[in-house]
Amino acid sequence: MSLVRATVRRDLLLAARNPGEWANPLMFFLMVAALFPMAVDPNPEFLSKISGGVIWVAALLATLLSLDSLYRADVEDGSLEQWLASGESLYAMSLGKALVHWCISGLPLTLMSPLLGVMLHLPEDAYFALFISLAVGTPVLSLLGAVGAALTASLRSGGLLLTLLILPLYVPVLIFAASAVYHAGIGMAYNGQVAMLGAMLALALALTPFAAGAALKLNLSR
Amino acid sequence: MEFSSLAEFIAMGKHGFYVWLSYGLTAVIIAFVVMQPILHRRRLLKEQAQRLRREKRNAPSA
Amino acid sequence: MWQWLVRLYHRLGSPKWFYEMTERWIFWLALAAGGSAIVGLVLGLLYAPADYQQGDSFRIIYIHVPAALLAQSAYMMMAVAGAVYLIWRMKMAAWVAKVIAPVGAAFCLIALLTGAIWGKPTWGTWWVWDARLTSMLMLLFLYFGVMALQQAMESEEASYKAGAILALVGLVNIPIIKYSVEWWNTLHQPATLKLTEKPSMHPDMLWPLLIMIVSTYLFFALVVILRTRNEILWHERKRQWVRKILES
User: Where does the record place a coiled coil (chain C) (predicted)?
Assistant: First the structure.
Protein backbone atom coordinates (compact mmCIF):
# COMPACT_ATOMS: atom_id res chain seq x y z
CA MET A 1 0.00 0.00 0.00
CA SER A 2 2.82 2.36 0.83
CA LEU A 3 4.05 2.23 -2.75
CA VAL A 4 0.61 3.19 -4.02
CA ARG A 5 0.39 6.03 -1.55
CA ALA A 6 3.84 7.23 -2.49
CA THR A 7 3.03 7.09 -6.19
CA VAL A 8 -0.20 9.02 -5.74
CA ARG A 9 1.62 11.59 -3.67
CA ARG A 10 4.44 11.86 -6.20
CA ASP A 11 2.04 12.26 -9.13
CA LEU A 12 0.00 14.91 -7.37
CA LEU A 13 3.17 16.76 -6.48
CA LEU A 14 4.37 16.54 -10.06
CA ALA A 15 1.05 17.93 -11.25
CA ALA A 16 1.24 20.76 -8.74
CA ARG A 17 4.77 21.69 -9.87
CA ASN A 18 3.83 21.46 -13.52
CA PRO A 19 0.59 23.39 -13.87
CA GLY A 20 0.35 22.71 -17.60
CA GLU A 21 -0.63 19.16 -16.83
CA TRP A 22 -3.93 20.11 -15.28
CA ALA A 23 -4.38 23.62 -16.65
CA ASN A 24 -4.15 22.72 -20.34
CA PRO A 25 -7.16 20.40 -20.30
CA LEU A 26 -9.07 23.13 -18.46
CA MET A 27 -8.22 25.69 -21.13
CA PHE A 28 -9.22 23.17 -23.76
CA PHE A 29 -12.52 22.63 -21.95
CA LEU A 30 -13.17 26.36 -21.95
CA MET A 31 -12.24 26.82 -25.60
CA VAL A 32 -14.33 23.95 -26.92
CA ALA A 33 -17.32 25.30 -25.04
CA ALA A 34 -16.65 28.74 -26.50
CA LEU A 35 -16.55 27.34 -30.04
CA PHE A 36 -20.14 26.11 -29.96
CA PRO A 37 -21.90 29.49 -29.76
CA MET A 38 -19.68 30.73 -32.59
CA ALA A 39 -20.28 27.70 -34.75
CA VAL A 40 -23.94 27.05 -34.09
CA ASP A 41 -25.97 29.97 -32.78
CA PRO A 42 -25.30 32.58 -30.07
CA ASN A 43 -29.01 32.99 -29.33
CA PRO A 44 -29.41 32.50 -25.51
CA GLU A 45 -32.62 30.53 -25.84
CA PHE A 46 -31.05 28.05 -28.19
CA LEU A 47 -27.84 27.87 -26.18
CA SER A 48 -29.67 27.12 -22.97
CA LYS A 49 -31.21 24.11 -24.66
CA ILE A 50 -27.92 22.55 -25.75
CA SER A 51 -25.63 23.86 -23.00
CA GLY A 52 -25.76 20.72 -20.84
CA GLY A 53 -24.78 18.47 -23.72
CA VAL A 54 -22.09 20.83 -24.96
CA ILE A 55 -20.47 21.11 -21.55
CA TRP A 56 -20.49 17.35 -21.17
CA VAL A 57 -18.98 16.72 -24.59
CA ALA A 58 -16.30 19.29 -23.85
CA ALA A 59 -15.56 17.69 -20.48
CA LEU A 60 -15.30 14.28 -22.13
CA LEU A 61 -12.84 15.50 -24.73
CA ALA A 62 -10.81 17.36 -22.12
CA THR A 63 -10.57 14.16 -20.08
CA LEU A 64 -9.34 12.23 -23.10
CA LEU A 65 -6.71 14.86 -23.77
CA SER A 66 -4.94 14.30 -20.48
CA LEU A 67 -5.32 10.51 -20.43
CA ASP A 68 -2.62 9.86 -22.95
CA SER A 69 0.19 10.74 -20.56
CA LEU A 70 -1.20 8.82 -17.57
CA TYR A 71 1.23 5.87 -17.75
CA ARG A 72 3.63 7.03 -20.42
CA ALA A 73 6.23 8.52 -18.11
CA ASP A 74 6.07 5.49 -15.83
CA VAL A 75 6.73 3.16 -18.75
CA GLU A 76 9.57 5.27 -20.06
CA ASP A 77 11.47 5.83 -16.83
CA GLY A 78 11.07 2.28 -15.59
CA SER A 79 8.76 2.94 -12.64
CA LEU A 80 6.30 0.49 -14.10
CA GLU A 81 8.83 -2.33 -13.98
CA GLN A 82 9.56 -1.45 -10.39
CA TRP A 83 5.86 -1.73 -9.50
CA LEU A 84 5.52 -5.07 -11.20
CA ALA A 85 8.65 -6.35 -9.51
CA SER A 86 7.55 -5.05 -6.12
CA GLY A 87 4.63 -7.47 -5.99
CA GLU A 88 2.35 -4.63 -5.01
CA SER A 89 -1.30 -5.12 -5.97
CA LEU A 90 -1.78 -3.83 -9.49
CA TYR A 91 -5.44 -3.33 -8.68
CA ALA A 92 -4.60 -0.76 -6.02
CA MET A 93 -1.99 0.81 -8.24
CA SER A 94 -4.35 1.32 -11.17
CA LEU A 95 -7.03 2.60 -8.83
CA GLY A 96 -4.55 5.09 -7.40
CA LYS A 97 -3.48 6.24 -10.85
CA ALA A 98 -7.11 6.70 -11.92
CA LEU A 99 -7.70 8.72 -8.76
CA VAL A 100 -4.75 10.94 -9.57
CA HIS A 101 -6.06 11.43 -13.06
CA TRP A 102 -9.46 12.42 -11.73
CA CYS A 103 -7.89 14.90 -9.31
CA ILE A 104 -6.07 16.68 -12.12
CA SER A 105 -8.79 16.48 -14.77
CA GLY A 106 -12.30 15.63 -13.57
CA LEU A 107 -12.22 17.55 -10.35
CA PRO A 108 -11.08 20.90 -11.82
CA LEU A 109 -13.54 20.44 -14.66
CA THR A 110 -16.35 19.93 -12.18
CA LEU A 111 -15.32 22.97 -10.19
CA MET A 112 -15.10 25.13 -13.28
CA SER A 113 -18.34 23.94 -14.88
CA PRO A 114 -20.57 26.70 -13.40
CA LEU A 115 -18.48 29.27 -15.28
CA LEU A 116 -19.23 27.49 -18.53
CA GLY A 117 -22.84 27.29 -17.49
CA VAL A 118 -22.95 31.05 -17.31
CA MET A 119 -21.26 31.42 -20.69
CA LEU A 120 -23.67 29.03 -22.33
CA HIS A 121 -26.83 30.27 -20.61
CA LEU A 122 -27.45 27.08 -18.71
CA PRO A 123 -30.95 27.19 -17.15
CA GLU A 124 -30.71 28.13 -13.51
CA ASP A 125 -32.29 24.95 -12.23
CA ALA A 126 -29.68 22.86 -14.01
CA TYR A 127 -26.55 24.08 -12.21
CA PHE A 128 -26.73 21.61 -9.42
CA ALA A 129 -27.52 18.77 -11.82
CA LEU A 130 -24.51 19.71 -13.95
CA PHE A 131 -22.29 19.84 -10.91
CA ILE A 132 -23.44 16.53 -9.45
CA SER A 133 -23.43 14.72 -12.80
CA LEU A 134 -19.87 15.86 -13.43
CA ALA A 135 -18.83 14.93 -9.91
CA VAL A 136 -20.22 11.40 -10.30
CA GLY A 137 -19.60 10.96 -14.02
CA THR A 138 -16.02 12.16 -14.52
CA PRO A 139 -14.53 9.49 -12.19
CA VAL A 140 -16.08 6.88 -14.48
CA LEU A 141 -14.37 8.55 -17.42
CA SER A 142 -11.04 8.47 -15.60
CA LEU A 143 -11.43 4.81 -14.58
CA LEU A 144 -12.41 3.61 -18.05
CA GLY A 145 -9.79 5.81 -19.63
CA ALA A 146 -7.09 4.36 -17.39
CA VAL A 147 -7.70 0.96 -19.02
CA GLY A 148 -7.16 2.46 -22.46
CA ALA A 149 -4.12 4.38 -21.24
CA ALA A 150 -2.62 1.20 -19.80
CA LEU A 151 -3.24 -0.67 -23.06
CA THR A 152 -1.59 1.96 -25.22
CA ALA A 153 1.11 3.16 -22.81
CA SER A 154 4.06 1.73 -24.71
CA LEU A 155 2.83 2.58 -28.20
CA ARG A 156 4.40 5.46 -30.02
CA SER A 157 1.18 6.80 -31.53
CA GLY A 158 -1.00 5.75 -28.65
CA GLY A 159 -2.88 8.99 -28.21
CA LEU A 160 -5.20 8.77 -31.18
CA LEU A 161 -5.68 5.05 -30.75
CA LEU A 162 -6.62 5.60 -27.12
CA THR A 163 -9.43 7.92 -28.19
CA LEU A 164 -10.74 5.34 -30.64
CA LEU A 165 -10.76 2.61 -28.01
CA ILE A 166 -12.32 4.60 -25.23
CA LEU A 167 -14.93 6.85 -26.85
CA PRO A 168 -17.54 4.13 -27.47
CA LEU A 169 -17.24 3.10 -23.83
CA TYR A 170 -18.03 6.66 -22.76
CA VAL A 171 -21.38 6.71 -24.53
CA PRO A 172 -23.56 5.54 -21.60
CA VAL A 173 -22.04 8.12 -19.23
CA LEU A 174 -22.60 10.87 -21.76
CA ILE A 175 -26.20 9.86 -22.38
CA PHE A 176 -27.24 9.74 -18.75
CA ALA A 177 -25.28 12.80 -17.65
CA ALA A 178 -26.49 15.02 -20.48
CA SER A 179 -30.02 13.82 -19.91
CA ALA A 180 -29.80 14.64 -16.18
CA VAL A 181 -28.74 18.19 -16.99
CA TYR A 182 -31.37 18.58 -19.66
CA HIS A 183 -34.18 17.31 -17.47
CA ALA A 184 -33.11 19.50 -14.59
CA GLY A 185 -33.20 22.46 -16.98
CA ILE A 186 -36.82 21.87 -17.93
CA GLY A 187 -37.80 21.37 -14.30
CA MET A 188 -38.12 17.60 -14.26
CA ALA A 189 -36.74 15.03 -11.83
CA TYR A 190 -33.23 13.86 -12.65
CA ASN A 191 -32.37 11.66 -9.69
CA GLY A 192 -32.86 8.52 -11.80
CA GLN A 193 -30.11 9.52 -14.20
CA VAL A 194 -27.77 10.47 -11.38
CA ALA A 195 -28.49 7.12 -9.73
CA MET A 196 -27.55 5.39 -13.00
CA LEU A 197 -24.30 7.35 -13.08
CA GLY A 198 -23.66 6.26 -9.51
CA ALA A 199 -24.25 2.63 -10.47
CA MET A 200 -21.80 2.98 -13.36
CA LEU A 201 -19.26 4.50 -11.00
CA ALA A 202 -19.63 1.58 -8.57
CA LEU A 203 -19.24 -0.93 -11.40
CA ALA A 204 -16.26 0.92 -12.85
CA LEU A 205 -14.59 1.17 -9.44
CA ALA A 206 -14.98 -2.57 -8.95
CA LEU A 207 -13.98 -3.84 -12.40
CA THR A 208 -11.81 -1.46 -14.41
CA PRO A 209 -8.71 -1.65 -12.14
CA PHE A 210 -8.52 -5.40 -12.92
CA ALA A 211 -8.46 -4.71 -16.63
CA ALA A 212 -6.01 -1.84 -16.24
CA GLY A 213 -3.76 -3.99 -14.05
CA ALA A 214 -3.74 -6.80 -16.61
CA ALA A 215 -3.07 -4.30 -19.38
CA LEU A 216 -0.14 -2.76 -17.49
CA LYS A 217 1.72 -6.07 -17.61
CA LEU A 218 1.67 -5.96 -21.41
CA ASN A 219 3.97 -2.98 -21.44
CA LEU A 220 6.80 -5.08 -20.07
CA SER A 221 7.14 -7.48 -22.97
CA ARG A 222 8.96 -5.04 -25.14
CA MET B 1 -45.35 -17.59 -55.29
CA GLU B 2 -45.92 -13.93 -54.43
CA PHE B 3 -44.92 -12.47 -57.77
CA SER B 4 -46.53 -13.27 -61.10
CA SER B 5 -43.75 -12.05 -63.37
CA LEU B 6 -40.03 -11.38 -63.32
CA ALA B 7 -40.59 -7.65 -63.81
CA GLU B 8 -42.82 -7.59 -60.78
CA PHE B 9 -40.23 -9.49 -58.78
CA ILE B 10 -37.54 -6.98 -59.71
CA ALA B 11 -39.82 -4.04 -58.92
CA MET B 12 -40.61 -5.40 -55.42
CA GLY B 13 -43.75 -3.29 -55.21
CA LYS B 14 -41.97 0.06 -55.74
CA HIS B 15 -39.31 -0.83 -53.19
CA GLY B 16 -37.05 -2.62 -55.68
CA PHE B 17 -34.25 -0.08 -55.38
CA TYR B 18 -33.96 -0.45 -51.62
CA VAL B 19 -34.33 -4.22 -51.55
CA TRP B 20 -31.82 -4.86 -54.32
CA LEU B 21 -29.42 -2.23 -53.07
CA SER B 22 -29.24 -3.87 -49.66
CA TYR B 23 -28.97 -7.37 -51.11
CA GLY B 24 -26.30 -6.18 -53.53
CA LEU B 25 -24.20 -4.49 -50.86
CA THR B 26 -24.50 -7.56 -48.67
CA ALA B 27 -23.37 -9.77 -51.56
CA VAL B 28 -20.32 -7.56 -52.10
CA ILE B 29 -19.33 -7.65 -48.43
CA ILE B 30 -19.93 -11.39 -48.16
CA ALA B 31 -17.89 -12.03 -51.30
CA PHE B 32 -15.06 -10.01 -49.82
CA VAL B 33 -15.25 -11.89 -46.52
CA VAL B 34 -15.05 -15.25 -48.33
CA MET B 35 -12.50 -14.38 -50.96
CA GLN B 36 -10.01 -12.82 -48.59
CA PRO B 37 -9.09 -15.99 -46.67
CA ILE B 38 -9.08 -18.08 -49.85
CA LEU B 39 -6.67 -15.72 -51.60
CA HIS B 40 -4.63 -15.39 -48.44
CA ARG B 41 -4.29 -19.16 -48.24
CA ARG B 42 -3.16 -19.40 -51.83
CA ARG B 43 -0.53 -16.71 -51.31
CA LEU B 44 0.60 -18.28 -48.06
CA LEU B 45 1.07 -21.72 -49.58
CA LYS B 46 2.96 -20.32 -52.54
CA GLU B 47 5.29 -18.19 -50.44
CA GLN B 48 6.03 -20.92 -47.95
CA ALA B 49 6.64 -23.53 -50.66
CA GLN B 50 9.08 -21.10 -52.27
CA ARG B 51 10.83 -20.55 -48.96
CA LEU B 52 11.12 -24.28 -48.47
CA ARG B 53 12.62 -24.81 -51.92
CA ARG B 54 15.04 -21.97 -51.35
CA GLU B 55 16.15 -23.41 -48.04
CA LYS B 56 16.67 -26.84 -49.60
CA ARG B 57 18.73 -25.41 -52.41
CA ASN B 58 20.90 -23.44 -50.05
CA ALA B 59 21.30 -26.15 -47.46
CA PRO B 60 24.04 -28.31 -49.10
CA SER B 61 26.24 -25.39 -50.09
CA ALA B 62 26.07 -23.84 -46.66
CA MET C 1 -19.72 -35.84 -20.62
CA TRP C 2 -17.27 -33.65 -18.70
CA GLN C 3 -14.32 -35.81 -19.62
CA TRP C 4 -15.37 -35.73 -23.23
CA LEU C 5 -15.45 -31.94 -23.07
CA VAL C 6 -12.02 -31.79 -21.51
CA ARG C 7 -10.65 -34.09 -24.22
CA LEU C 8 -12.28 -31.97 -26.92
CA TYR C 9 -10.74 -28.86 -25.38
CA HIS C 10 -7.27 -30.35 -25.39
CA ARG C 11 -7.68 -31.46 -28.95
CA LEU C 12 -8.93 -28.05 -30.03
CA GLY C 13 -5.77 -26.66 -28.52
CA SER C 14 -3.72 -28.63 -31.01
CA PRO C 15 -3.37 -26.69 -34.27
CA LYS C 16 -2.53 -29.83 -36.20
CA TRP C 17 -5.64 -31.64 -35.03
CA PHE C 18 -7.80 -28.62 -35.83
CA TYR C 19 -6.28 -28.27 -39.28
CA GLU C 20 -6.75 -31.89 -40.21
CA MET C 21 -10.20 -32.14 -38.69
CA THR C 22 -11.58 -29.07 -40.43
CA GLU C 23 -10.24 -30.26 -43.77
CA ARG C 24 -13.25 -32.53 -43.95
CA TRP C 25 -15.71 -30.01 -42.49
CA ILE C 26 -15.14 -27.23 -44.96
CA PHE C 27 -16.97 -28.87 -47.84
CA TRP C 28 -19.99 -29.84 -45.78
CA LEU C 29 -20.14 -26.49 -44.02
CA ALA C 30 -19.99 -24.63 -47.32
CA LEU C 31 -22.68 -26.91 -48.73
CA ALA C 32 -24.94 -26.45 -45.69
CA ALA C 33 -24.43 -22.68 -45.51
CA GLY C 34 -24.89 -22.20 -49.25
CA GLY C 35 -27.85 -24.57 -49.50
CA SER C 36 -29.72 -23.08 -46.56
CA ALA C 37 -29.03 -19.57 -47.88
CA ILE C 38 -30.57 -20.50 -51.23
CA VAL C 39 -33.61 -22.11 -49.59
CA GLY C 40 -34.03 -19.17 -47.21
CA LEU C 41 -33.66 -16.55 -49.91
CA VAL C 42 -36.03 -18.28 -52.32
CA LEU C 43 -38.64 -18.69 -49.61
CA GLY C 44 -38.09 -15.18 -48.32
CA LEU C 45 -37.94 -13.33 -51.60
CA LEU C 46 -40.45 -15.33 -53.61
CA TYR C 47 -42.88 -17.05 -51.30
CA ALA C 48 -43.20 -14.96 -48.17
CA PRO C 49 -46.24 -12.67 -48.31
CA ALA C 50 -45.61 -8.93 -48.44
CA ASP C 51 -45.92 -7.07 -45.17
CA TYR C 52 -49.27 -5.29 -44.92
CA GLN C 53 -47.66 -2.05 -43.76
CA GLN C 54 -44.22 -2.01 -45.29
CA GLY C 55 -44.93 -3.86 -48.52
CA ASP C 56 -42.02 -5.65 -50.10
CA SER C 57 -39.31 -3.56 -48.45
CA PHE C 58 -39.64 -5.81 -45.41
CA ARG C 59 -37.78 -8.50 -47.38
CA ILE C 60 -34.58 -6.79 -46.28
CA ILE C 61 -35.24 -8.42 -42.92
CA TYR C 62 -33.81 -11.69 -44.24
CA ILE C 63 -30.33 -10.26 -44.26
CA HIS C 64 -30.68 -7.46 -41.74
CA VAL C 65 -31.77 -9.48 -38.71
CA PRO C 66 -29.38 -12.44 -39.17
CA ALA C 67 -26.46 -10.05 -39.71
CA ALA C 68 -27.35 -8.02 -36.61
CA LEU C 69 -27.71 -11.14 -34.47
CA LEU C 70 -24.45 -12.55 -35.70
CA ALA C 71 -22.56 -9.30 -35.23
CA GLN C 72 -23.54 -9.30 -31.57
CA SER C 73 -22.83 -12.95 -30.88
CA ALA C 74 -19.56 -12.78 -32.80
CA TYR C 75 -18.38 -10.09 -30.41
CA MET C 76 -19.30 -12.34 -27.52
CA MET C 77 -17.42 -15.27 -29.06
CA MET C 78 -14.41 -13.06 -29.66
CA ALA C 79 -14.38 -11.94 -26.03
CA VAL C 80 -14.80 -15.52 -24.77
CA ALA C 81 -11.99 -16.77 -27.00
CA GLY C 82 -9.87 -13.89 -25.73
CA ALA C 83 -10.64 -14.85 -22.14
CA VAL C 84 -9.68 -18.47 -22.85
CA TYR C 85 -6.37 -17.22 -24.17
CA LEU C 86 -5.77 -14.93 -21.20
CA ILE C 87 -6.55 -17.66 -18.66
CA TRP C 88 -5.14 -20.85 -20.22
CA ARG C 89 -2.70 -19.34 -22.73
CA MET C 90 -4.20 -21.39 -25.52
CA LYS C 91 -2.71 -20.17 -28.79
CA MET C 92 -5.60 -21.45 -30.86
CA ALA C 93 -8.03 -19.29 -28.89
CA ALA C 94 -5.97 -16.20 -29.63
CA TRP C 95 -5.96 -16.95 -33.33
CA VAL C 96 -9.70 -17.55 -33.34
CA ALA C 97 -10.32 -14.28 -31.47
CA LYS C 98 -8.11 -12.45 -33.93
CA VAL C 99 -9.87 -13.78 -37.02
CA ILE C 100 -13.37 -13.23 -35.64
CA ALA C 101 -12.88 -9.45 -35.35
CA PRO C 102 -12.94 -8.53 -39.06
CA VAL C 103 -15.74 -10.99 -39.82
CA GLY C 104 -17.87 -9.65 -36.98
CA ALA C 105 -17.18 -6.10 -38.10
CA ALA C 106 -18.24 -7.02 -41.65
CA PHE C 107 -21.56 -8.36 -40.40
CA CYS C 108 -22.02 -5.31 -38.21
CA LEU C 109 -21.50 -3.19 -41.30
CA ILE C 110 -24.04 -5.25 -43.23
CA ALA C 111 -26.59 -4.80 -40.46
CA LEU C 112 -26.00 -1.04 -40.38
CA LEU C 113 -26.12 -0.59 -44.15
CA THR C 114 -29.24 -2.68 -44.65
CA GLY C 115 -30.82 -0.99 -41.65
CA ALA C 116 -30.19 2.42 -43.15
CA ILE C 117 -31.50 1.32 -46.56
CA TRP C 118 -34.56 -0.22 -44.93
CA GLY C 119 -35.11 2.98 -42.98
CA LYS C 120 -35.46 5.08 -46.13
CA PRO C 121 -38.80 3.64 -47.34
CA THR C 122 -40.03 2.89 -43.80
CA TRP C 123 -39.15 6.03 -41.86
CA GLY C 124 -38.49 8.31 -44.80
CA THR C 125 -34.84 8.90 -43.96
CA TRP C 126 -31.56 7.02 -44.30
CA TRP C 127 -30.37 7.45 -40.79
CA VAL C 128 -32.17 8.09 -37.55
CA TRP C 129 -30.62 8.20 -34.12
CA ASP C 130 -32.68 5.25 -33.15
CA ALA C 131 -31.66 3.13 -30.20
CA ARG C 132 -30.69 -0.05 -31.94
CA LEU C 133 -29.05 1.59 -34.93
CA THR C 134 -26.97 3.63 -32.53
CA SER C 135 -25.94 0.68 -30.40
CA MET C 136 -24.98 -1.26 -33.54
CA LEU C 137 -22.84 1.72 -34.54
CA MET C 138 -21.16 1.60 -31.14
CA LEU C 139 -20.60 -2.14 -31.62
CA LEU C 140 -18.89 -1.38 -34.93
CA PHE C 141 -16.67 1.13 -33.15
CA LEU C 142 -15.81 -1.48 -30.53
CA TYR C 143 -14.80 -3.91 -33.29
CA PHE C 144 -12.70 -1.22 -34.93
CA GLY C 145 -11.07 -0.47 -31.59
CA VAL C 146 -10.07 -4.11 -31.07
CA MET C 147 -8.74 -4.39 -34.61
CA ALA C 148 -6.82 -1.11 -34.41
CA LEU C 149 -5.27 -2.06 -31.08
CA GLN C 150 -4.17 -5.47 -32.36
CA GLN C 151 -2.62 -3.83 -35.39
CA ALA C 152 -0.73 -1.29 -33.34
CA MET C 153 0.92 -3.68 -30.91
CA GLU C 154 4.46 -4.61 -31.80
CA SER C 155 4.77 -8.07 -30.32
CA GLU C 156 2.27 -10.67 -31.37
CA GLU C 157 1.62 -11.94 -27.87
CA ALA C 158 0.93 -8.43 -26.58
CA SER C 159 -1.47 -7.82 -29.45
CA TYR C 160 -3.48 -10.93 -28.54
CA LYS C 161 -3.60 -10.01 -24.87
CA ALA C 162 -4.44 -6.37 -25.45
CA GLY C 163 -7.21 -7.31 -27.87
CA ALA C 164 -8.61 -9.80 -25.39
CA ILE C 165 -8.62 -7.31 -22.52
CA LEU C 166 -10.30 -4.65 -24.62
CA ALA C 167 -12.85 -7.16 -25.91
CA LEU C 168 -13.72 -8.17 -22.35
CA VAL C 169 -14.09 -4.57 -21.22
CA GLY C 170 -16.32 -4.01 -24.23
CA LEU C 171 -18.33 -7.12 -23.41
CA VAL C 172 -19.24 -5.72 -19.99
CA ASN C 173 -20.10 -2.44 -21.66
CA ILE C 174 -22.32 -3.81 -24.41
CA PRO C 175 -25.39 -4.37 -22.19
CA ILE C 176 -24.87 -0.96 -20.58
CA ILE C 177 -24.58 0.73 -23.96
CA LYS C 178 -27.61 -1.14 -25.22
CA TYR C 179 -29.69 -0.27 -22.20
CA SER C 180 -28.69 3.37 -22.08
CA VAL C 181 -29.23 3.91 -25.76
CA GLU C 182 -32.58 2.17 -25.68
CA TRP C 183 -33.67 4.25 -22.76
CA TRP C 184 -32.45 7.35 -24.54
CA ASN C 185 -34.40 6.95 -27.75
CA THR C 186 -36.56 4.32 -29.35
CA LEU C 187 -37.99 4.45 -32.81
CA HIS C 188 -37.03 1.03 -34.03
CA GLN C 189 -39.80 -1.52 -34.21
CA PRO C 190 -39.69 -3.87 -31.21
CA ALA C 191 -37.42 -6.86 -31.64
CA THR C 192 -38.76 -9.22 -34.25
CA LEU C 193 -37.67 -12.33 -32.46
CA LYS C 194 -37.72 -12.97 -28.76
CA LEU C 195 -36.73 -16.30 -27.35
CA THR C 196 -39.19 -16.14 -24.49
CA GLU C 197 -42.27 -15.13 -26.44
CA LYS C 198 -44.24 -16.59 -29.25
CA PRO C 199 -43.26 -14.83 -32.45
CA SER C 200 -45.80 -12.37 -33.76
CA MET C 201 -44.83 -12.97 -37.37
CA HIS C 202 -46.74 -14.96 -39.92
CA PRO C 203 -45.09 -18.42 -40.20
CA ASP C 204 -44.56 -17.99 -43.95
CA MET C 205 -42.49 -14.93 -43.14
CA LEU C 206 -40.87 -16.43 -40.08
CA TRP C 207 -39.51 -19.66 -41.52
CA PRO C 208 -37.27 -18.06 -44.13
CA LEU C 209 -35.92 -15.79 -41.41
CA LEU C 210 -35.03 -18.70 -39.16
CA ILE C 211 -33.41 -20.53 -42.06
CA MET C 212 -31.40 -17.44 -42.93
CA ILE C 213 -30.24 -17.09 -39.33
CA VAL C 214 -29.01 -20.70 -39.31
CA SER C 215 -27.35 -20.16 -42.67
CA THR C 216 -25.59 -17.03 -41.43
CA TYR C 217 -24.17 -18.84 -38.42
CA LEU C 218 -22.98 -21.72 -40.60
CA PHE C 219 -21.36 -19.24 -42.95
CA PHE C 220 -19.68 -17.52 -40.04
CA ALA C 221 -18.32 -20.86 -38.79
CA LEU C 222 -17.00 -21.61 -42.26
CA VAL C 223 -15.22 -18.29 -42.64
CA VAL C 224 -13.74 -18.41 -39.16
CA ILE C 225 -12.43 -21.92 -39.84
CA LEU C 226 -10.91 -20.84 -43.16
CA ARG C 227 -9.19 -17.90 -41.55
CA THR C 228 -8.01 -19.86 -38.54
CA ARG C 229 -6.46 -22.45 -40.88
CA ASN C 230 -4.47 -19.67 -42.51
CA GLU C 231 -3.26 -18.51 -39.12
CA ILE C 232 -2.24 -22.10 -38.32
CA LEU C 233 -0.35 -22.48 -41.57
CA TRP C 234 1.51 -19.26 -40.94
CA HIS C 235 2.42 -19.91 -37.33
CA GLU C 236 3.30 -23.57 -37.80
CA ARG C 237 5.12 -23.05 -41.08
CA LYS C 238 8.37 -24.46 -39.74
CA ARG C 239 6.79 -27.65 -38.39
CA GLN C 240 7.21 -30.97 -40.07
CA TRP C 241 3.52 -31.56 -40.77
CA VAL C 242 3.15 -28.24 -42.53
CA ARG C 243 6.26 -28.97 -44.60
CA LYS C 244 4.59 -32.09 -45.87
CA ILE C 245 1.56 -30.06 -46.95
CA LEU C 246 3.80 -27.54 -48.67
CA GLU C 247 5.80 -30.17 -50.50
CA SER C 248 2.81 -32.05 -51.83
Answer: none
Site from C29, C41, C42, C57 to mutate, B interface, most B CB atoms within 10 angstroms: C57
Q: Which of residues 4-43 of A touch C (CB under 8 A)?
A: none
For residues A207 and C206, give the distance between their C-alpha atoms in angstroms, rounded to a whole number. 41
So what's the ipTM on this one? 0.88
Does residue C103 fall inside a structural domain?
A: yes
Percentage of chain C lying above the pLDDT 70 cut: 94
Q: How many domains does chain C have?
A: 1
Strand partners, C55: C51
Query: Which residues have C-beta within 8 Å of that of residue C33, sequence separation ≥ 6?
Result: C215, C218, C219, C221, C222
Q: Is B13 on the interface with C (CB under 8 A)?
A: yes
Range of the domain at C179: 23-247
Backbone angles phi, psi at C147, to 5 degrees: -65, -45
* Chain C adjacent subunits, 3+ CB pairs under 8 A: A, B
Quick: pLDDT tens for A24-80. Answer: 889 999 998 888 888 888 888 888 888 889 999 999 999 998 888 888 888 888 888
Does a structural domain hold residue B51?
yes
Residues, chain C? 248
- A1 pLDDT higher than 80: no
Q: State whether B44 and C234 contact (CB < 8 Å).
A: yes
Residue B46 lies in a domain: yes
Contact assignment for C233 to B2 by CB distance below 8 Å: no
Which helix (H) or strand (E) segment holds residue C193: the answer is: none
Chain C residues in contact with B33 (beta carbon < 8 A): 102-103, 106, 223
